[in-house]
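#struct-help
A.M.: can someone run this one for me? Single chain, 83 residues.
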Amino acid sequence: MTTPADVPLGIRELSELTGLTPDTLRWYEREGIIPAVHRAPEDSRRHYPATIRAVHLIQALRLRTKIDDYNDMIATGRACEHG
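D.P.: on it. Structure tokens below:
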């Protein structure tokens, strides 16, 4: 599944794109591992490019790191993005 970078995805679309379950994605959000999810007017989750990049980064790191290390790495990445 491909999507233009600027089109927000619902949780099901993000799940299909990443192969992670919606429950896993919600857990990542609660733990602060992925950016806070924007809510559409109908209260559905809308995942934007920053979230999609964070999930892809987590997937790339899964075999090499512990989940506890993710927050530090994500924070470092965000600091680099914002100069």
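A.M.: thanks! The helical segments are 11-18, 22-31, 49-61, 70-81.
D.P.: also worth noting: Strands lie at 38-39, 45-46.
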